[in-house]
Every structure is written in C-alpha cells, then in structure tokens.
Amino acid sequence: MTFSLTAPLFVEVSVPLPIDHPFTYRVPEGEEHRAQVGVRVLVPFGGRKMTGLVTAITDASALDGRAAKDLLAILDETPYVSERHLAFLTATARGCLAPLGETLRAALPRGLPRKEAPAAPRMESFYRPSPFPPGGAMTPKQRQAYEAVRESGGISSTDLSTRVPGGADAAKRLAAKGFLLVESRPRPVGLHAASLPDLAGDLAPTPGQEAALSRIGVAVASGRHAAFVLHGVTGSGKTEVYLRAVEQVRATGRQAIFLVPEIALTPQLLGRVRSRFRDGVAVLHSGLTPAERSAQWRHVRDGEVFLCVGARSAIFSPFPSVGLIVVDEEHDAAYKQEDGVRYQARDLALLRGRMEDAVVLLGSATPSAESFHRVRTGAATLLSLPERIGGSGMPEISVVDLKGRADRRGADRYFSPELEAAIDSTLVRGEKAMLFLNRRGFASALTCLECGTTVQCRNCQVALTYHREHEALLCHYCNVKRKEPEACAKCGGHKLAQVGIGTERLLSWVSKRWKEARVARLDSDVTRRRGAYAEVLSGMQQGEVDILVGTQMIAKGHDFPEVTFVGVLLADLSLSFPDFRASERTFQILTQVSGRAGRGDRPGNVLFQTMSPESPAIRKAAGHDYAGFMEEELAAREAMGYPPFGRMLLLRLWGTRQDAAREAADLVAGALSGPMSAHGVRLLGPAPSPIARVKRRFHYQVLLAMPPDFPVGDLFPELLRPLRERVRKLGARLEADVDPYQMMV
Ligand SMILES: [Zn+2]
Ligand SMILES: [Zn+2]
Ligand SMILES: [Zn+2]
Q: Class assignment of domain 10-107?
C-alpha cells in the first residue's frame, strides 16, 4: 500500500484487554514516518491512557465513516515486537479463540509496559575459604557448609543452600568468625537452581543418540521445518540429545526454545544446562521479579542469548530467529494453560515451527496419543532410544490384585504381603524405596457411618480432604479450610470416619510399620514451605532417606541411583475420571514412576497394586508395552471420534447465579445448533459440568465435536463474538477451550 503525503495515516492498535477487535487511531501529522507495525503507542482509551501495540497500518477506509481519535505518542523507534512474532501471536489468538489483546497480555512481560524500568540487580553473598582460617570449633552444619565452600573454591549463598540445606546461615556465621571471606555480588538472573556438574557432556553418545542427532542435524542444517517425536525409555539419555541439538542450532546462528513441564521440578536439568551453556541461557521461572522477567524477555528478543528454558509460556520467547523448539515430556498436561488464553504449548510449538521454519523436537518416554498418531500419519518422524544408558535393564514390574483386601481395614487394606516383602528386602540390602500414591492429604473424605453423608465443601460440589497436619478439612479446588465437624450435618450422628488414604496417612503408616527406616514425603503440601523441595531432594541424593512417599511429584525426572524399588499403592486411582484421556494418563504416570527404579547399576523392581488388574493401561504399563497400549487406545478413540481423530471445542458458561449460568448455556446451545449442524459439527449439551459448582460459581458446558481438519479459527471467532456479549448481559461468562484437557469443571 502507498500513502499520499497529504492523506491522514491511521493505525490499528490492540490493547492488552480481553477485547475481540483492534481500535483505529489517527497518527498525528509529522509522526507518520515513526508509525510501524509492532511499536508501542500511547492511546486515549475510555477516558484514560493506555499502552497498545500497532498491529497494522491503514488508511481512512478502515474507519467505515466512524471518527478516530489521535494517538497520543509513539513509544518506540524500532518495533517492540517484531512483525514475525506478532504474526505468531495473532495466529495463537485465532487458534485458541482468544482475543488478541488477551493473548498479548499473556505473552508479553507485564502485559505491555509503557516504560522499561531498568532492573536493579538483587545482590547475594559469595563465599570463599579464608587463606588464614582461625582456630576454633564448628557445629556439624557449619563443618558441612565449610567443606562445600572449600570444595567449590567459591560459591554463592543460593548455590550453597541447594547443596547444604541451611548452609547459607551457617556460612554467614563462619564468615563472622573469620573462616570464610564474603563479598556481595549481583545475583545472576538466569539459573540459580541446584548446580550440578555436567558429566554427560563428555561421554560418547550411544548409537541411538547418534542416529537421532544425525537426523535432527540434517533438518537443522536445511533451515526448514521438521517435526520429530523422540521416544526414549526412562534413563535413555533424551536430555543429552536435546542439549546437543541446541548446540547444532547455535552453530547455524539461530536460537532455541526448551520447554519443560514445571521449571521448579527440574533442578537437575537446569544444573546441566547451566554448566553446558553458561551465559548463553535465559530462564523464565516463577521466582523472577517482574523487572527481571522483562530484562530476560529483552535479552531473548535482542538475541543476546541463544537458548531460553522455561515452562509453557516460554513458547512466547520473542527470539529473532528460532531454529529449534524442544518440548520435554511432551505428553504432560502441564503444557495446557487452564485459564485466560487456554493454549496448548506443544501444539503452539508445532504451529510456530511451521510458521518460522524451525525444527520441533517432542520428547517423552510415553509420547501422547496425538504425537503417536502424528508419527503414524507421517506428519512427524519417530526417533527411538530403546535402551537405558549404561546398559541397566528396564525394571521388573509385577501386578497385585487388591480386590481380595477390600474388606480389610486401615493399613492392612493397602499393604499387600507382596508390597511388605519387597520393601523389607530392599531395606535389608541397604537400598532405597519409593511409594507412589496420587492423592495428597490424610484421608480422602470424612463420611458419616450412620447415614453415609460425606462432608462437602460449601463452595464446591466436592468432598473435603482431611489433613491431619493442619487438623482441618481442606478443599482441593478452592483451598477453603474448615474444622472437623463434631456431628453429621444431615443426621446429627457422631460417628464420622476418615475414609480413604492420602500421602500424609501413608507416611504415618509407613513409619509405624518400618520403625528404623528414615522416611520422607514429597507432595504439593510439603513443597508449599520454601526450600522444602530442595531439602527432600538433597536428602535423597545423600542417601539420607530410605523410603520416600509422594504424589506424582516423585515421578518427575529425578535420578536417584540407590532407588531399586517403586511401589504404586493404588494404580487405578486416575482411571475412573470421566475423561477420555484417563487411560492414557494412567499409563503415562505408571510408566514414569516405574522409571525411577533401578537407574544405577542394580536392577529395579516395581509393584502395581490395583483393583482393576485387567485394565489395558495397567497391563501394558507392567509389560513395558507402549506401542501395544497406543494401538488399543487409538482404536478406541477412533471408534468414538475423540482426539486425535476429531477436534473438540468446550464452551464453558459460568456465573454466580445458577439460573443465569443455565440460561446462558441454553442461549449458546440454541444459537449454535443451526450453524453447527450445517457444518456437520456435533453439539452435546448444554449440561451441568461434572463438578457443577466450584468456588461458588455454577458451571455449565456445551461441547462441540468436529472432524480433525475442521477450520476452528475461521468459523468460530465471528460466531462467538455476539454470543459473548449476550452471555455477559445475562450476568454470566463464556469461555472457549479448544481441544480441552480439563473437562470436570
Ligand atoms: Zn496437608
Ligand atoms: Zn471448595
Ligand atoms: Zn449422618
């Protein structure tokens, strides 16, 4: 488009608010040469000033006869967001049926800041051993801290406390006594998780790793998009493949994004990344201050680093030229954002890879049904690492049927003779055991023995969980806490029984049964306390824990060579969820937790206890038969038209008044039924959500089932825009969730 010098110039501006469309502003005379796509502008908006982003340059025809206000200022000389990155964010908004403004708010640091405040560096203490240590005694903890400082030559207080819990305090006292020298240094913004020596970098790659890397290398060198699914059994060295692929991309002058499910749960990985790539890495994690986050974001945008590691939102890393996107544990549901812009980071990685000619590497021991299907249809190439590094075999898995114990009480019901014998012999050999139970708390419910009523949350339609350490009932949905009632609210009966088992109760039973064993627990209740996670991990690393009890937190990528036994208390706990992914998730979690056993030079053993030993997820996981499981699972999904053989759009309607939410659901279902049947889309509902009341809101759902190639982003934005407005007028809200994971609420 060309513009005459006399005609006024207009720009379309998106503001970081959940609004479906951009706004048109007039560029003040004389400023036309500064108006570019991607610069920030200050605009008058509803009586106040707001920062927005220029998404297009246009002329008066965009106004359709309406009047346009002048924008107040152009804030950048060069684009704040490149045109290429803006194109990706626009495609994201479209694919997720989310307003662009809301997508900008999710993808850019602090929404869209008007000013870039320089980040004042946070300082931390740095310790070195004194060349002239005084005489005098040390406490055992101080001795431990002193040795750690001496071994490292010099160490920051942050790193010290990840190696020696409480080490920072001890070092402070040692410095006061003159054993250590201390200075204040700016704390590095990037990695400061446990730093571990990177030993794997010097090892020669296995034949499997070599083959995978040569395929990836060819794709990287071509500079074009390619998708790989790296299927590697637990302990097979996937991380080394990722890191060497990053090196390949770095050599081409392009950058890499490395996604992990949860950054806080990957200290071992972060240690390796840091020792391998040093200052070339930006890390996005929740411990950053907003200013630090902005600073990291700018380093990435300006290409001052070549690797960005982070959880799902790091897919929005604004690198100038992304050549590789790694998605580790690609099957993990943590890649799905569950509020606001409900994106799936793995799917966005594939979208971005196609748009920006990047190689996408999806790694897992249990690739998702979607990725397995992609390989079968030729949309992705399979790379396999079928063997564990160092030649240790896969653990031996046996299955114990718990049905015969259903009438027993207490620990007896959950501790089968096989489980007890396995733990006994593990401890006798001086080895370590892990016990996995996918439910936290003490008892899963408090039930009246007179009338069978279960104590429920007053905000949510769910049973409250009893937590003994808080001496209270907690809601796992809204976090409300209440005292244990003395009598049943329905019948007044006084016999309230703690029913079911959680990790808290399991730990108390374990410490009663194995009195001499040193036990520890790891779940999100424990890690709420700062530093608790690192403490438990370092206890495991130093061999100070004999039996570790925990939720799926213990299943994530840790490598403890002394663990030779893993017991799964209730393998079918996640099977009964009303969700078409329940079987797949059960298979994945069982495979992952089994993979913790026998990673050193001693063989591992695993025991699944279950009420449904015949279920495919449990049988196939016990047989290490991933391909067999997926064949059955995909056949079942194809028969039902579930993803990946179809797409789904879940429309959530919620409100604080039940009649408003229901009316909104009826309205949406009614308005869509005509257009949907015209497009061959199945409409299910409206219906109350499986958990119809959460956080005092009433939830309804309308589910749309479409063919796999249905153009979701083309049809729905126009259809939903007027509906959102009408739903709002009823006093309810409409949220679109494309390819949903969470179907309960
Ligand atoms: Zn608790
Ligand atoms: Zn609740
Ligand atoms: Zn009762």
A: alpha beta
Q: Relative to the alpha carbon of 469, which ligand is closest? A: 1
| CATH for 200-390, options being 1.10.10.10, 3.40.50.1820, 3.40.50.740, 3.40.50.300 | 3.40.50.300
How much distance in Å is there from the Cα of 491 to the middle of ligand 3? 4
Cβ–Cβ under 8 Å, residues 615 and 572: yes
Q: What is the CA radius of gyration of the chain?
A: 28
User: What is the 464 CA–ligand 2 centroid distance (Å)?
Assistant: 8
For the chain, percent helix, then strand, then coil, each to nearest 5? 35, 25, 40
Lowest-pLDDT range of 105-109, 436-440, 461-465: 461-465
Give residue-wise pLDDT tens across range 84-103: 999 999 999 999 999 899 99
Q: Name the residue with tokens 């050999």.
A: 429
Give the Å distance between the CA of 481 and the centre of ligand 3. 21
Q: Which ligand is closest in space to the CA of residue 487?
A: 3
Complex ipTM value: 0.77
Q: Are 367 and 116 in contact (CB under 8 A)?
A: no
Distance 486 CA to ligand 1 centre (A): 20
Ligand nearest to the CA of 481: 2
Which ligand number lies closest to the CA of residue 468?
Answer: 1
Write out pLDDT tens, residues 668-698.
999 999 999 999 899 998 999 888 888 889 9
Q: How does 419-428 read in b/e, with b if 16+ C-beta sit within 10 Å?
A: beebbeebbe
Q: Is 392-441+503-637 a CATH 3.40.50.2000 domain?
A: no
Write the DSSP symbol of residue 30. T
CA torsion through residues 484, 485, 491, 497, sign: positive
Alpha helices in 278-385 (DSSP H): 290-301, 345-356, 369-376
Instruction: Report pLDDT for 196.
Output: 47
Architecture of the 647-738 domain? 2-Layer Sandwich (3.30)
- Residue 6 pLDDT level (bands cut at 50, 70, 90): low
pLDDT digits (tens, 9 = 90+) for 340-364: 899 999 999 999 999 999 999 999 9
Nearest bound ligand to the CA of residue 691: 2
For ligand 3, the distance from its centroid to the CA atom of residue 494, given in whole angstroms, is 8
Give the distance (Å) from ligand 1 centre to CA of residue 469: 6
Q: Residue 526 CA: which ligand is closest?
A: 1
In which element (H, E) is residue 12 found?
Answer: strand 10-14
Identify which ligand lies nearest to the alpha carbon of 488.
Answer: 3
Where residue 166 falls among pLDDT bands split at 50, 70, 90?
Answer: confident
**Which ligand lies nearest the alpha carbon of 459?**
2
Q: Closest-lying ligand to the alpha carbon of 528?
A: 1
Provide mean pLDDT across the span 571-596.
Answer: 87
**In this model, does residue 192 exceed pLDDT 60?**
no
Q: What is the CA(503)–ligand 1 centre distance, in A?
A: 9
Q: Give residue 467 CA to ligand 1 midpoint distance, Å.
A: 5
694 alpha carbon, closest ligand:
2
Going from the Cα of 742 to the center of ligand 1, the distance in angstroms, rounded, reads: 24
Tell me what the mean pLDDT of segment 269-292 comes to.
Answer: 83
